[in-house]
Task: inverse folding
């Protein structure tokens, strides 16, 4: 085995080539495996089918962005990218936690405005219930005949002469601005 | 030869040495255990990426997959596709560099 150097050159060369081939084969298998994985997982956007999908999706996007296709104007229901349709107003019905009425989901926000008191009339509802007791004691008039809405009778009943802001009645003279 | 592993008697002609499978196995084990094989592989991988060889092979694979349809393809198919071209298209300077490194290893391992 341990002969002179030139004797070892030839087997060394052969051996080296052998191992080089070995390394190369491993790397080839790695590359093949990687390409195989990419193909199977559909990660390669350049394969034909992906091109087809791409074309279809751009078509769909164009159709969706097209203003003449505004769904609510032309047709009652718009079809989204999953093929689902949604009515323009959400139509699930549930119970309002404030007043207990059955409300449609799409109409819930406006309902809450009235129901909880952003608006003038809604605040009346609130003040009515809080001042109802005071009314009963100060006026002696039955609360049930009290109307929160503007009418001449309510202004007539104002005892303190404050200008009748239509529809509002006060037992203690404090003026609440609508 | 100072290895302590049992092996069949060496044939007389020194040129036959490289062909003995047992002998090659021993060297292979030495290569792996010393970590040199891993280093060589990384070096070769790097060189092949730099020179675009890997991209060529991937293009070959993609072309084949497009033709055959990606659901039918096996790793064996791809290996078979790229091996002939792969082995043939290694740039000379890369081959030379690797062979040189391997030979250097064999010398210092005193085989």
Result:
């Amino acid at each position: 085995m341990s002969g002179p150097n030139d004797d070892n050159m030839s087997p060394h060369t052969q051996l080296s080539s052998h191992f080089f081939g070995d390394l190369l084969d491993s790397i080839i298998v790695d590359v093949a495996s990687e390409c195989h994985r990419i193909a199977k997982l559909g990660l390669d956007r350049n394969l034909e089918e992906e091109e087809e999908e791409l074309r279809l999706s751009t078509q769909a996007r164009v159709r969706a962005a097209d203003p003449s296709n505004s769904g609510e104007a032309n047709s009652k229901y718009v079809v989204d990218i999953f093929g689902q349709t949604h009515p323009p107003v959400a139509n699930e019905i549930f119970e309002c936690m404030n007043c207990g009425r059955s409300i449609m989901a799409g109409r819930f926000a406006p309902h809450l405005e009235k129901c909880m008191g952003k608006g003038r009339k809604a605040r009346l509802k609130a003040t009515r219930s809080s001042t109802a007791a005071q009314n009963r004691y100060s006026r002696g008039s039955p609360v049930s005949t009290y109307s929160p809405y503007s009418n001449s009778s309510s202004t007539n009943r104002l005892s303190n002469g404050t200008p009748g802001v239509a529809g509002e009645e006060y037992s203690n003279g404090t003026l609440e601005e609508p | 030869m100072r290895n302590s592993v049992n092996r069949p008697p060496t044939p007389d002609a020194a040129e036959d040495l490289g062909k003995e499978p047992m002998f090659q196995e021993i060297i292979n084990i030495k290569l792996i255990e010393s970590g040199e094989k891993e280093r060589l592989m990384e070096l070769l991988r790097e060189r092949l990426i730099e020179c675009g060889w890997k991209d060529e092979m991937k293009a070959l694979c993609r072309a084949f997959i497009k033709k055959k349809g990606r659901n039918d393809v096996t790793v064996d198919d791809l290996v078979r596709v790229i091996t002939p071209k792969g082995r043939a298209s290694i740039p000379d300077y890369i081959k030379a560099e690797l062979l040189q490194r391997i030979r250097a290893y064999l010398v210092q391992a005193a085989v």
User: Anything to note?
Assistant: Residues 92-108 of chain B form the longest helix (17 residues).
